[in-house]
Amino acid sequence: MSLVVSNKYELLNWKDRIWKVGPDDKLIPKRDENNQIIYNPLTGQPEYEYLENGTRVNAKRLNHMDKGIYSAHDYIVELQATIRRMQIQMELDGRVPGNSGTFADTLDGSSNKISLDKALTDIIEAVEIGTTTLKVASVDGFKPFTQVTIFDDEHSEDVVITEVGTNTLKIQALKNAYKKGAKVARSNVAIDIVNAEMSVGDWQTFNVDLVEVV
What we know:
alpha+beta; two-stranded antiparallel ribbon; rod-shaped; 1 helix; Thrombin, subunit H; six-stranded antiparallel beta sheet
């Protein structure tokens, strides 16, 4: 008898035991060559004549069913995961109008229907709490009514640009003070295409020693 192979399950085709019945509607005992009733050596009960022996229950057949149930369960789990991935993909492809629905980024550097807004500039003068106008090195890529992140090595906050001028950005009042050289960015995310992950961009200071060469 073959057992379960892969996802294919072979039916055992179980059969009932069909007993012989005498004229008196009673089971007919089995008899030996001496016409003596044969008794089961384990139960001590008489053995009876049958038309169909039927399928016996044993460990081999039960293990066959057990493995079939396990295989079916394993297949359902895998199928459920596949369907879930398809549902997620359909959600991704159906929720972004005009962009064929795709808004996921694989972070591997390959072309995508979305792109990271990399507009970035420096504050050229230190600012205090409550400041609403920033003097910046460049306004390229910045637009009114978009959100930016301002950060240095001590503080960070998100504000909305209200107006873009000539090397100035008008914003909501700052909650923190920032140093000269602090960053103004549409996104402070750094993408690592090697490890396919995002990290928070940083702000650094450097010490420079001037050496006179004679």
